[in-house]
Each structure stands twice: as structure tokens, then as C-alpha cells.
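Good morning,

Attaching, inline, the C-alpha cells for the sequence recovery test we're adding to the shared suite. The designed sequence is right after.
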């Protein structure tokens, strides 16, 4: 089955992150969705920015009430818009830094093919709160225990629902997010590899260098050259 994905926003690169057989349409604003629905009814709607009012507008359209929404953003921190979306049903949050992970593409396929693949609203909100917590505290010494405690969940339960919601194991998600932040810091802040590792939550600079090289195909030291 070929999924139909509607991207709302200005990040045209997002289309390259989706399954190759997906049919993708792009519009710059929710204002342009209604005319499109006569010829294209999406299985998934993707936003590249955080505006709860846009999701509210979708839900007022009978054709889109049950269509799942994926919100992709570089940084997800608590703000009024985000707090409302955390509680919204059939809404998944994702950091753009983690989109290249193979699990993301598989999860998008599942989203377009099976709406039963979504977690119940209350369970999904736990995962979204966990993602927000990671965004706020990624530079700290995180642990499953700390994240689970912050969202009032058990560690094992958090791991299970996180993988089901995002398609990616919790710790892989965190590492990919941290590595992307680290690459940005290496380019913009002039920090050493060791300083960058610590600032992005990696206690062991050697492990950071190995993980960075595995992710990007070159060592973090070469980024600064």
C-alpha cells in the first residue's frame, strides 16, 4: 500500500525522509489544504513547525478528524503550543535530527498504513513528555530512571511505548539527537571535542568520538578543520 503524505510548511527536504513509495504533497500553509482534498486525501499530515492552532484547524474538517499528525522540529521545548499538542490524540512529536534513522522511515510507513499502530492518547502523551524532557535535559547525565521518573512511568514501560510510538529505541533516539547538537556546536561554538562531548551529555569523550564517527562517517575532530 502506498501512503499519501501531506507536508505543511516550508522545509522541502522533509520529503526526502519519507518512504520512497510514498506519494507526497507539499503546501506552505493549512489555508491551502481544503482545495487539495478534492484530489488528495492524506493518510498522514506532517508539520515542520509547532502551532497547535494548525492542528485544531485540521480537526474541524470532517475529512481530517482522524488523520494522524506528525510534527517534526529541530527543538521541542515546553511552550504553550507544545503543551497542548502533548495531550492531543493521534499526534506524534519527532526531532528532525533523528529523521535519518532507519526506524523513522519504517514508523512513517506504519502510520500511513495502519491507524491502529498509534498509542492511546494518554500513553502517547507519556512518550511526548519524554521527548520534551530529553530536549530540555539532553546535556545532563540522563538515565532511563530519570526520564521515567519525570513522566511518572516505569523504566521498562517507557522503553516499550517509546519504541512503539517513534519506531526507535529510547537510547538510540537520545544519542542521535545529542550527536546532531554536538555537530552544530563543533561548527558554531569553537569548542574542543571534549568540551562538546560534555556539553551534549556524553561523559566519555572517546565513546562520543566513536559514536560520532559511526553516525557521520568521520571523526568530530575533522569537523573543526
Amino acid at each position: 500500500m502506498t501512503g499519501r503524505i501531506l507536508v505543511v510548511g516550508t522545509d522541502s527536504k522533509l520529503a526526502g525522509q519519507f518512504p520512497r513509495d510514498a506519494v507526497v504533497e507539499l503546501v506552505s500553509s493549512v489555508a491551502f489544504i481544503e482545495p487539495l482534498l478534492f484530489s488528495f486525501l492524506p493518510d498522514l499530515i506532517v508539520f515542520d513547525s509547532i502551532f497547535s492552532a494548525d492542528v485544531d484547524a485540521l480537526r474541524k474538517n470532517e475529512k481530517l478528524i482522524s488523520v494522524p499528525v506528525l510534527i517534526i522540529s529541530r527543538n521541542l521545548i515546553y511552550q504553550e503550543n507544545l503543551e497542548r499538542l502533548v495531550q492531543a490524540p493521534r499526534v506524534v512529536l519527532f526531532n528532525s535530527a533523528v529523521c535519518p534513522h532507519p526506524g523513522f522511515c519504517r514508523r512513517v510507513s506504519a502510520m500511513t498504513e495502519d491507524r491502529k499502530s498509534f498509542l492511546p492518547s494518554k500513553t502517547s502523551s507519556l512518550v511526548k513528555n519524554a521527548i520534551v524532557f530529553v530536549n530540555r535535559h539532553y546535556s545532563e547525565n540522563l538515565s532511563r530512571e530519570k526520564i521515567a521518573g519525570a513522566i511518572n512511568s516505569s523504566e521498562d514501560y517507557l522503553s516499550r511505548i517509546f519504541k512503539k510510538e517513534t519506531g526507535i529505541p529510547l537510547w538510540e533516539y537520545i544519542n542521535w539527537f545529542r550527536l546532531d547538537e554536538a555537530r552544530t556546536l563543533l561548527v558554531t561554538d569553537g569548542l574542543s571535542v571534549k568540551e562538546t562531548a560534555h556539553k551534549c551529555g556524553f561523559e566519555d569523550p572517546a565513546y562520543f568520538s566513536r559514536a560520532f564517527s559511526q553516525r557521520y562517517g568521520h571523526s568530530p575532530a575533522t569537523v573543526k578543520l
